[in-house]
Amino acid sequence: MVERPLTHPRDEGRAGRCATLFAVLGIASVGADPAAASTVLSTTTEVFGSATAVYSFDTPSAGTLNVQLTDVGWPTRLASLSSTIYSSTASLGSLSAAGDLTLLLSGPSDLSAFVSAQAQGALNLGLYSLDITFSPSTSPVPLPSAGLLLTCGVGILGTIGWRWRRREEGGP
Questions:
Q1: Is the bond preceding residue 136 a cis peptide, omega within 30 degrees?
Q2: S-S: 11 plus which of 7, 57, 101, 103, CB 3.0-4.6 Å?
Q3: pLDDT (tens digit, 9 = 90+) per residue, 2-55?
Q4: Pairing of strands 63-71, 80-86
Q5: What structural domains does the chain harbor?
């Protein structure tokens, strides 16, 4: 009876490479969230006396629009601060003071933010910040499931290749 080594010299280190491949595929399947919020508009504006500003922006799809209007309080708080978000046909929402506003959008939109501010104090000077983020409401591809399927497919192909080579070498 001829004794065969359990592994072929060519197979040494293959288990480590396979484990590394599966680990990389598992990490890649986790990935970033495709529905993560993106910044649409971020501005900080100085107010001397009174000021109004209109900022135009667009959203690419249906989703959630988050508006954050902040009185920075430099050098003193503003006497008044307000904002309204408009589409081409209607007012979608407004803030009568610093705060947060969440709007649900049904599709792509060209929007405008109107901001009005009044400074106060000895310098008649103030500062506000407007931050608008957008989160799409699309259904993300289930990456963990797809990654598992890919990992299983690569494992099956590897097993078939290993058995095929083993048969060529005269193994069972």
A1: no
A2: 7
A3: 454 444 555 545 555 555 555 555 544 444 455 578 999 999 999 999 999 999
A4: unpaired
A5: 38-136 (2.60.120.380)
Taking the C-alpha atoms of residue 95 and residue 84, their distance in angstroms, rounded to an integer, is 6
Q: What is the identity of the amino acid at 131?
A: D
Residue 126, class by beta-carbon neighbours within 10 Å (0-12 exposed, 13-18 middle, 19+ buried)? buried
Segment holding 131, helix H or strand E = strand 125-136
Kindly report whether the global pTM for this prediction surpasses the value 0.70. Answer: no
**Tokens, residue 111:** 């929007």
- The torsion angles phi and psi of 159, rounded to 5 degrees, stand at -65, -45
Give me the percent of the chain exceeding a pLDDT of 90: 58
Q: How far apart are CA 15 and CA 158, in angstroms?
A: 11
Cα distance between residue 45 and residue 81, in whole Å: 12
User: What are the tokens at 133?
Assistant: 């983020």
Distances (CA, A) of 70 to 42, 73, 80, 110: 11, 9, 11, 23
